[in-house]
Inverse folding.
């Protein structure tokens, strides 16, 4: 173990990206994500990586995709309004199946909202923000250390499933400082981009099984193929044939949904004997943990289910733990993950919501539990 | 020299362009320029946005990237920056580059990243069947300007010069040899190059504006394009319905990828 260090979630995200082998970062200044760009501007040249500040959020997303096509592990970071602007090319990355990582340090919205106040209002935008049917991988860390781990994992998932992966940080975790130990290389998994063993003549960039991908050959390595945002067939060229369109669009979802168990990550606390389960994620899970401890002191059997993967949601685990129990979903929005929890459990649930720019306090969740 | 068929994806033909379209003339000059400069087919990436001209890369046997509307230069910037060994050409249209992609264009010019951009300027949005663009001449007709276009136009080449592109030239689909020459010079320029190729769209611009077919429109180009030197001798009145062709700017400046390579070297030197 290295010496413990004090850092922000945003900084831990950068260290996670460096640990994962980031080769390219494009960004645009926006609070509360800017520390990510600032630190990478400093660190990237030291590791021979490429940093660029683009003219806007749209081009940052585009350049990130371009760099990934050139073979680099690529990332961009932003916050609410910037995340809205990124949706256009995020959809391109989904359609063209280009691995990349998009960090959204969530702040209060809609629109410019409260730039330096926390929120978790972009959960559904992460799922459905870009037009058209597709699946999404989105991860939401609750601590500084987990920001490191989740970022490494995001790069791995992006490469493994040839897809953009979204990290839903929030202002609480992004700006919070904690003492963490950055793990030594070799103690965590780093996945390199899979390589094709087909010759350029045989290679078809989208000739993938329903639950998988074809390794993406970098441009400039002798594999000459076409990438387009138009619906395309297995060769990558535009197609309007219904069977090919159907296969392509369904596969964008199935390649992720059929691998849900490989992707999802969650944690449970005190759930074995619990009759009440709090569901909370990101910064709010910290308050929920404190709530659980306060409740236990009072003799209340309260547990916590904390999804780290928000999309796809850890559906089976939630059913195992929370089905037919009292469920309270606490989140800094008006009930976005609550919708998913209701859908999965098919039962009435309770909600603790806050959208005033202040974090949810442990007492507020406790009040809900106690019916105050 | 071969006829260039090996640079085409012949199995993707026929192309989607209308009979008489000028896009094929420009595309063929791009291919001839690549041939004459002997660029490596495996190291050349051709990037485009959305629109008629942006469909060209699909027919060309290179690594090709057909991106979102207006964003070709932003994708291309990431590609080139992340692997400066790649040779990058961007094919774009007047709507793609001057309207929705205008911001990316001026900033690519400013950075002077080594990308050659060829703007297919047909004065109209062809793919969506004939709406006016920022390069549609004032007074012209379009489906969204049924009473005549009241917008002023950009001089795209002068905009590129002002924004910092290091090679800028304009010519037409009538002047094919000059077009190839300008494209080659742009490709040889170590920096950001813009070649504005004024082309003809008989289907959506020519028909609505009663300019005749492809041949008449090419003749119109011949009659209305004035070389820079000749233009210097003409009065403002004489130039009123003309446009200027030629090399507007050719001045090397430090290239962006090279500057970053230097920055990396310096940073590592300090470690």
């Amino acid at each position: 173990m290295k010496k413990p260090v004090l850092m922000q979630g945003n900084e831990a995200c950068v260290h996670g990206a460096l640990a994962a082998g980031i080769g390219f970062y494009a960004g645009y200044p926006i609070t509360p994500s800017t520390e990510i760009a600032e630190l990478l501007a400093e660190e990237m040249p030291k590791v021979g990586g490429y940093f660029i500040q683009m003219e806007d959020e749209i081009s940052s997303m585009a350049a990130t995709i371009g760099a990934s096509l050139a073979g680099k592990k690529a990332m961009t970071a932003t916050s609410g309004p910037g995340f809205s602007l990124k949706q256009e090319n995020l959809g391109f990355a989904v359609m063209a199946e280009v691995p990349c990582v998009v960090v959204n340090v969530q702040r209060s919205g809609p629109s410019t909202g409260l730039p330096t106040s926390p929120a978790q209002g972009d959960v559904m935008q992460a799922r459905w923000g870009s037009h058209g049917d597709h699946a999404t991988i989105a991860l939401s860390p609750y601590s500084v250390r987990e920001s490191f781990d989740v970022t490494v994992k995001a790069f791995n998932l992006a490469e493994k499933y040839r897809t953009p992966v979204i990290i839903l940080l929030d202002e609480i975790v992004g700006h919070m400082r904690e003492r963490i130990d950055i793990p030594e290389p070799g103690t965590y998994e780093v996945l390199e981009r899979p390589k094709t063993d087909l010759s350029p003549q045989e290679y078809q960039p989208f000739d993938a099984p329903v639950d998988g991908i074809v390794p993406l050959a970098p441009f400039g390595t002798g594999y000459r193929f076409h990438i387009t945002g138009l619906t395309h067939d297995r060769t990558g060229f535009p197609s309007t044939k219904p069977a090919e369109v159907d296969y392509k669009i369904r596969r964008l979802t199935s390649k992720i949904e059929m691998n849900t168990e490989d992707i999802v990550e969650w944690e449970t606390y005190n759930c074995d004997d619990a009759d009440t389960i709090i569901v909370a994620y990101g910064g709010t899970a910290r308050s929920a943990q404190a709530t659980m401890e306060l409740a236990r002191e009072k003799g209340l059997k309260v547990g916590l289910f904390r999804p780290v993967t928000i999309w796809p949601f850890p559906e089976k685990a939630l059913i195992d733990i929370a089905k037919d129990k009292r469920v309270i979903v606490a989140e800094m929005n008006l009930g976005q993950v609550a919708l998913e929890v209701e859908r999965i459990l098919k039962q009435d649930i309770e909600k603790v919501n806050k959208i005033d720019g202040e974090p949810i306090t442990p007492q507020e969740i406790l009040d809900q539990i106690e019916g105050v | 020299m071969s006829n260039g068929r090996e640079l085409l994806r012949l199995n993707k033909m026929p192309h989607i362009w209308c009979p008489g379209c000028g896009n094929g003339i420009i595309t063929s000059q791009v291919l001839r320029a690549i041939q004459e400069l002997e660029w490596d087919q495996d190291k050349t990436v051709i990037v485009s946005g959305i629109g008629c001209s942006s469909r060209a890369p699909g027919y060309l046997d290179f690594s090709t990237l057909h991106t979102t509307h207006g964003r070709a230069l932003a994708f291309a910037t990431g590609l080139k920056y992340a692997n400066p060994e790649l040779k990058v050409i961007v094919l774009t249209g007047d709507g793609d580059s001057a309207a929705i992609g205008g911001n990316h264009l001026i900033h690519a010019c400013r950075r002077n990243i080594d990308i050659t951009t060829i703007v297919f300027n047909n004065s109209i949005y062809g793919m969506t069947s004939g709406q006016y663009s920022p390069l549609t001449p004032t007074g012209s007709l379009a489906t969204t300007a049924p009473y005549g276009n009241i917008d002023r136009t950009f001089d795209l080449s002068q905009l590129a010069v002002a924004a910092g592109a290091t090679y800028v030239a304009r010519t037409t689909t009538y002047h094919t040899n000059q077009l190839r020459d300008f494209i080659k010079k742009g490709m040889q320029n170590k920096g950001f190059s813009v070649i504005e190729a004024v082309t003809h769209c008989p289907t959506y611009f020519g028909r609505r504006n009663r300019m005749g077919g492809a041949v008449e429109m090419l003749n119109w180009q011949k009659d209305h394009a004035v070389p820079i030197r000749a233009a210097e001798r003409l009065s403002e009145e004489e130039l009123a319905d003309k446009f200027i062709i030629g090399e507007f700017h050719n001045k090397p400046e430090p290239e962006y990828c090279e500057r970053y390579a230097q920055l990396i070297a310096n940073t590592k030197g300090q470690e």
